[in-house]
Design a protein that fits this description.
Layout lengths: L19 H8 L2 H10 L10 E5 L5 H9 L8 E6 L2 H14 L3 E5 L12 E6 L11 H10 E14 L3 H11 L17 H10 L7 E11 L3 H12 L10 H4 L1 H12 L6 E2 L5 E13 L1
Parallel strand pairs: 1-2, 1-4, 2-3, 4-5
Antiparallel strand pairs: 5-8, 6-8, 7-8
Helix pairs in contact: 2-3, 6-10, 8-10
């Protein structure tokens, strides 16, 4: 799960308190659809596979894995690992409800407790860009715990339609020169940066393939979605929230709504919901 960059001391009264449940509502089907788009570039997962859903959160990638099996889960084992115990509780509930062949374990991506050559597959879904050191230490652990011939499936966003609206809201409501939310993530839009991280994690250049895939995402009702976006990401700057953000809250949310409607691929859906178009960089690496 994502964490703010700065140490937030002041929080506007309108900001929704983060929780795994609210995070699931915010990301909607984006994480599962991202995982499905990524899994499309490997051969079907076979019986006997042991899969690490690394940084599993509430289980989107595991859900995508199970969906890809078309009910043929016999002989498959999924180990979901994350350091957020609240998210793992939600993961366990999803696994129980869905009959997944999975268990959730509290474990740091940068220091897995599994033996060398444990897994046939590892998926790091929307993971690397939220980790320290660009996720290189985590990729090293993925490489170590993969069996020879095993596959690592990793991704980053090449195009995120909700970031320009967030930046527009920040510029419209904050003093000039205030750092923008999630600054520093532009490098991840480049496929060669993702490739370089995977290489630095130990995978040979000639055993890495890079792809791009479109990911359609269905939002909740647009006003609530914009409010969640600003709540979750508006304060993720080195200076955190400003006290003026409280009085400017409604203006920021309206800017986000207006700018979202201008993004490529924006489609209005019944019930006030919307569909957004994301584009993913996807790396498949073989040990």
């Amino acid at each position: 799960m994502n964490a703010p960059e700065g140490e937030v001391k002041f929080v506007p009264k309108q900001a929704l308190a983060p929780s795994p449940q609210l995070y699931d509502e915010l990301v909607s089907d984006s994480m599962e659809n991202l995982a499905k788009a990524s899994l499309a570039f490997i051969t079907p997962i076979a019986a006997g596979s042991v899969i690490n859903d690394n940084g599993c959160g509430t289980g989107a990638a595991s859900a995508a894995v199970v969906a890809s099996l078309s009910g043929q889960t016999s002989g498959i084992s999924i180990k979901g690992t994350d350091i957020n115990e609240d998210a793992l509780k939600v993961y366990r509930a999803h696994a129980a409800d869905g009959g997944w062949p999975a268990e959730a374990v509290n474990m740091d991506s940068n220091s897995l407790k599994y033996d060398d050559a444990t897994f046939t597959h590892v998926i790091g879904n929307a993971l690397l860009f939220v980790l320290p050191h660009d996720g290189i230490d985590a990729v090293k652990e993925m490489y170590r715990t993969l069996k020879p011939g095993g596959k690592a499936i990793l991704n980053s966003w090449a195009y995120v339609p909700n970031m320009p609206p967030l930046e527009a809201a920040a510029r419209a409501t904050r003093p000039e020169g205030t750092p923008l939310p999630r600054s520093g993530l532009d490098k991840w839009s480049k496929a060669d940066f993702l490739q370089s991280v995977v290489e630095q994690g130990g995978f040979s250049k000639d055993k890495i393939t890079i792809h791009q895939g479109d990911v359609s995402v269905t939002t909740s009702e647009l006003h609530r979605y914009a409010n969640m976006l600003w709540s979750f990401i508006g304060g993720t700057t080195p200076v955190g929230w400003l006290r003026s953000d409280e009085e400017n809250w409604d203006k920021a949310v309206e800017v986000i709504k207006t700018e979202l409607k201008k993004t490529e691929g924006y489609t209005e859906l019944p019930g006030g919901k919307s569909q957004l178009k994301f584009i993913a960089n996807i790396a498949v690496a073989t040990k």
